[in-house]
Amino acid sequence: MPNNRRYMILGLVLGVLALGSSVVPEMSNPAAGQPLNLTGYYVTFDEKFNHLDISAYGSDRQWIAHTPWNGDFGDAIFGNPEQDGPFSINAQGLEITAKRGTNGKWTSGLICSVDKDGPGQHGFAQKYGYFEMKAILPSGSGTWPAFWLVGRDKTHAGAEIDVIEYYGGFPKYFHTTEHVWVMGKNALLRTQLIEVPEGSLSSGYNLFGVLITPQKTTFYLNRHEYWQTTTPPEYQQPMYILADLALGGGWPISDLPSPQVMQIAYIKVYSKTP
User: Fold this and answer.
1) Dihedral sign, CA of 57, 62, 66, 70?
2) Contact at 8 Å (CB) between 114 and 126?
3) Residue range 84-109, pLDDT digits in tens
4) Less CB within 10 Å around the terminal CB: N or C of the chain?
5) Tens-digit pLDDT profile for residues 241-258
6) Which class would CATH give 3-272?
7) Using an 8 Å Cβ cutoff, are 79 and 107 in contact?
8) Which residues of the chain have pLDDT under 50?
9) The GH16 domain covers which part of the protein (predicted)?
10) Contact yes or no for 270/97 (Cβ under 8 A)
């Protein structure tokens, strides 16, 4: 989720505000979509966050607290799992807290399911299947939470699927974006702006999911389809998981109240029975 993408998304949001959602192309109504059918699938990854299983960078835990390519982003520093850090466990699962320190600087949190890119990588990645996060998102303007996947093989291109990318200042919309990166530029860019009941992503839990097959990539909100694309060759590989509470994304955070919280009940992955 490089910072140079924020201005593309910013332009899309501003276009919606200027023109009205009725005239903006590629809008979705998730409630009207087909329900998810997981018949023939089984759970391969089931993280309910019953305990804190995060390390700074090492391979000894389920998650690391940074991107595996040392490319952290946004206007808050992603902190490590330590006392007074951004991560905590409660009865509802994992809580990621963004807060402003006494020095005026913000810290927040990110989790990733592999420890590094390249040879010797450890952690969870899966080719094809259904990936899902159940979460409550913060609503403050300047909050920028996300749930996304990245392809393990970056030899020739970088594959990225942003299942949900949410700008808290616009509580009626979220974004879903597909990327293929080559030499830092978008060789493939497909994006969808999804309209939801205002405030619904912050007032309770929602399910954000993507089903990747060799032929199609299908996106779901609360297990109802809202977008489907043709699966590009770059997505036909194991993908690893990231979830974060970033800040900024092109929006100021000087007036953002502290703290801001993202609550994740679970992250699950399913694979089709052979």
Assistant:
1) positive
2) no
3) 999 999 999 999 999 999 999 999 99
4) C
5) 999 999 998 899 999 999
6) mainly beta
7) yes
8) 3-8, 14-25
9) 22-274
10) no
